[in-house]
Structure formats: structure tokens, C-alpha cells
Amino acid sequence: MDIKLEHDKDEEKLPLLRNTEVPEAERNLVQQAISQTFESTAHLANLLPTGTVLAFQLLSPIFTNLGNCDSTAKTMTSFLVAICGVSCFLLCFTDSFRDSKGNICYGFATVRGLWIIDGSTTLPPEIAAKYSIRFIDFMHAVMSVLVFAAVALFDQNVVNCFFPAPDNETQEILTALPVGIAMDAEASGTQNQEEKLPLLSNAEIPEAERNQIQKAITQTFESTANLANLLPTGTVLAFRLLSPIFTNEGSCDLVSKTMTAVLVAICGALCILLCFTDSIKDSKGNICYGFATFSGLWLIDGSTTLPPEFAAKYKLRFIDFMHAAVSALLFAAIALFDQNVVSCFFPEPSLETEEILRVLPVGIGIFCSIFFVVFPTKRHGIGFPLSTS
């Protein structure tokens, strides 16, 4: 239940497709397999809150002093890992809904229902009860913490900080453990789909009345929600899994360097292409994925056909190309945060090069985060959070 939104209120909003306006998708076995694969990658977006992970990636080189930790740096790094881990755990118990005016309200799931954080409105008891905390929420929270632990163990700065001179056995554990955790979490994330709550109709929720402080709180939550669409989670997780293997943990020969370059290129290309995908629901609630084109939305599996007037509302726009370029930039920053990749291409960097490699990904990460907060995407493509509508 990470904080993720369907649309930002400052964007031009497309009219939501009513179920009766999209013909039911008729799929054969191959089309069903394709659709299920795409839906599974979308569930990976709920593994971790993107903002927390990005903040960790930005701060870890600074807190760890690029892996050269003294006692102060080690303490600061421990606090960073602990705070980010707790954040991943707590954010799994948050949820959101829209009131009668379409305003987004955030809350924490409790035993009795959903507790609204800013207190701007009150849910009717029978609706609030549908958001009560469940056992699966604790399972998701634990899995989220485990995945974050894998992300931290993939970070060579963190590993070098706590294990500056590991023996062979420890080195083997540090190499295999995060890969195992990530693969297990990926399998769980694609299989354990949450029970879907009935969508709240606008008339059921009183309009939220907010003062300036409450508006500021909500705007902050909405801004962090837009970070969920920074990158396709499955692509980034696959890159994290494969980079230690392809780079031979940073000790590259010509073959390893070529394989790593191909890996970076493929993942970067995927980040760009997936920014041009989107999804809809047919009259039966089946999710259909497609590529945005200049004439509308081209459905990948061809299982249904959109009415032309609705397909045209999903056509390519200039902002899609901007999002694709920024997504590629952010993936480049993720790659530069990976010490295995850096060591592979720059085994003995000069002081100037090392300074650039330290500062550049941080600058890119901050710029991309600001861009996606100011200009959020409203598409829900392959590998990105699904829209409930």
C-alpha cells in the first residue's frame, strides 16, 4: 500500500472510461499469458516506495564516504539504513481515496479502519472498515523491508562500510543473499495480489475541508506519490540482480565489460519504451496494455478495440518524450550509483573523474525527482503502478 496516485490534480485529466464504453477483451491462451505477464510486472511497483529508495541511493555515497567509513560515518550509515527500512515498513500500512470532489485523502490502516492523517474528512464506518488492517499487510511490510535490505546489500558503499575486508565465506554470502532475497520478493510480488476493495463512489465520501496546513500535508503526499512513476520497478530490480554477475563484481575483462554495456543499454532502452505504454480496463474489469501512438492507443495483445474517440485521448504527447528522456537519465544515475558498474568502466579513475562520478548521479537524481513531482505522468504502463479506475 505504498503511496501511489492515479492522476495529479494539476494535470489535464482524461475522462475515465466507463466499463460499458470498452468492449470486453476476448483472449486466447497466448493473449492471456501476455496480459498476466504485464500485470505481474505492475505489481512489482508496490515492492518499495520509490522516494525512500531514491533518497537512500542519493545519501549513501555521502554518509558512507564512498565506502571509506570511520566510526562516525558507520553510525550515520546505520541510522540511514534503519530510517529507510522503517519508512518502507510503515508506508505499507498507508492507503488513499478520493472524496466527493475528487480530492485525494491519505490515511493509515488500523484495526478499526482507515485513519485519515490530516483529519480533513471522515469515512462512514462501513466504508472505513473495508480498509482495516489485515495479515497480508504485515506480510507485505516484512517483504518490503527485506527487499530494501537487498537494495542496501547491492550498494557497494554500504557493504564496504560495514565489511571493509570480508573473508571468502562472508563475501559469498554478501553476493548471494541480496540476489536470493530479490528473486523471492519478485516472485511473491507477482503472485500475492491484494484483495481489491470496492471502488468508493464520490457520493459516499464527504468533501474534505482543509486548512493551509492540511493542504500542505496533502500536497507533500501527492508529490511523493508521483515518484512511483520514475522508473519501471521490474527493470531496475533486474538490473540490480544482474549487474554483480555481468560485471564480475566490478573486476571486468573485455567480455564482462561488453556484457555490462549491453545490460545497461537494454535496461535504459526499456525505461524509455515503457514510458510510452498505458493500460485500460474493459467492461469486465480486465486490464489491457498498449503503446501510445500518434493516433491513439494500440493494444498489444489485440484482445479488444477501443472506440476511436477514446483511443485518441491516449495518443502521444510531447510530455511523454520528456518523461522518457528523464527516465533514461534517472536510470543512468542508478547505474552510476552501482559501484560494480563504475569499477567495471572506470577501474582507476583520476581524481577529477572520481569527483564527477560522485556528484553527477546525485545531481541527476535530484533533477529527475523534481521534474516528476512538477510534471507527473498520468500513464499506467507496463511495470508501473496500476490505476484502480
Automatic annotation (TrEMBL):
<feature type="transmembrane region" description="Helical">
    <location>
        <begin position="75"/>
        <end position="93"/>
    </location>
</feature>
<dbReference type="GO" id="GO:0010256">
    <property type="term" value="P:endomembrane system organization"/>
</dbReference>
<dbReference type="Pfam" id="PF05078">
    <property type="entry name" value="DUF679"/>
</dbReference>
<comment type="similarity">
    <text>Belongs to the plant DMP1 protein family.</text>
</comment>
<feature type="transmembrane region" description="Helical">
    <location>
        <begin position="318"/>
        <end position="336"/>
    </location>
</feature>
<dbReference type="GO" id="GO:0016020">
    <property type="term" value="C:membrane"/>
</dbReference>
<feature type="transmembrane region" description="Helical">
    <location>
        <begin position="258"/>
        <end position="276"/>
    </location>
</feature>
<feature type="transmembrane region" description="Helical">
    <location>
        <begin position="135"/>
        <end position="154"/>
    </location>
</feature>
<keyword id="KW-0472">Membrane</keyword>
<keyword id="KW-1133">Transmembrane helix</keyword>
<dbReference type="InterPro" id="IPR007770">
    <property type="entry name" value="DMP"/>
</dbReference>
<feature type="transmembrane region" description="Helical">
    <location>
        <begin position="356"/>
        <end position="375"/>
    </location>
</feature>
<keyword id="KW-0812">Transmembrane</keyword>
<protein>
    <submittedName>
        <fullName>Uncharacterized protein</fullName>
    </submittedName>
</protein>
<dbReference type="GO" id="GO:0005737">
    <property type="term" value="C:cytoplasm"/>
</dbReference>
<feature type="transmembrane region" description="Helical">
    <location>
        <begin position="44"/>
        <end position="63"/>
    </location>
</feature>
